[in-house]
Specification:
With about 200 residues, the chain is an alpha/beta fold. It contains ten helices and five strands. Strands 2-3-4-1-5 form a five-stranded parallel beta sheet, with helices on both faces.
């Protein structure tokens, strides 16, 4: 897993996104790439983060990591990436009496990073603890005006607009969805799963 992640990070560049994903006219991907580059170029003078939505393999994480890498390399920013499920697992692990790391040791860099990427929001198993923990992170970063980028596979549609579709609202709740709309511009990515198009991706 670590080797696959390292290989992915090495390839997560704006130019690679352009070459690998935008192989045909695709306005949503063009717009997402443009907005991602704009945020990276203008950082830290930005007012809102970005929320990339779309099916698996359309390039959400690729763009988020490309932004993160650029602002770390060109701005010296304190950047941090977490898969949401991994972050919650690490936080839960601090409740083990044998573990010397405290919950605050994990949360402090997450809350204080100049740019945070939270990947795959909504994929975590829901619970009151999960909701409270994620709301704490999101609200703290909102109040301190720290930029955050999110990704999710779940569509952002109004509650109960389609009972057959599991939406972002269903996964994270009304309160967090409302806060995220205050924090971020939402971008829907559409396209084929590029991982199925690249035979050497593993």
């Amino acid at each position: 897993k670590q080797r696959r992640r390292a290989a992915f990070w090495a390839k997560a560049l704006f130019n690679a996104f352009d070459a690998n994903l935008i192989t045909y006219d695709n306005a949503p991907l063009d717009e997402a790439l443009s907005r991602a580059r704009k945020l990276a170029d203008e950082f830290p003078v930005i007012n809102r983060g970005l929320f990339f939505l779309g099916d698996p393999g359309v390039g959400k994480t690729h763009l988020a990591v490309a932004i993160l890498k650029q602002v770390i390399l060109t701005r010296g920013a304190r950047g941090l990436f977490y898969d949401t499920r991994d972050l919650l697992k690490v936080i839960r692990g601090t409740y083990n009496a044998v573990v010397r790391t405290t919950e605050l040791d994990v949360l402090r860099p997450v809350m204080e990073a100049d740019l945070l990427v939270l990947d795959d929001l909504g994929a975590e198993k829901t619970s009151e603890w999960v909701e409270e923990t994620l709301n704490l992170i999101v609200n703290t970063r909102y109040n301190e005006r720290r930029a955050t980028i999110f990704t999710s596979n779940y569509p952002d549609v109004p509650p109960e607009s389609n009972p057959d579709v599991i939406s972002l609202h269903d996964r994270i709740g009304f309160r967090m969805r409302s806060r995220l709309h205050e924090m971020c511009d939402f971008l829907d990515l559409e396209g084929a799963d590029y991982r199925m198009l690249l035979p050497n991706e593993g």
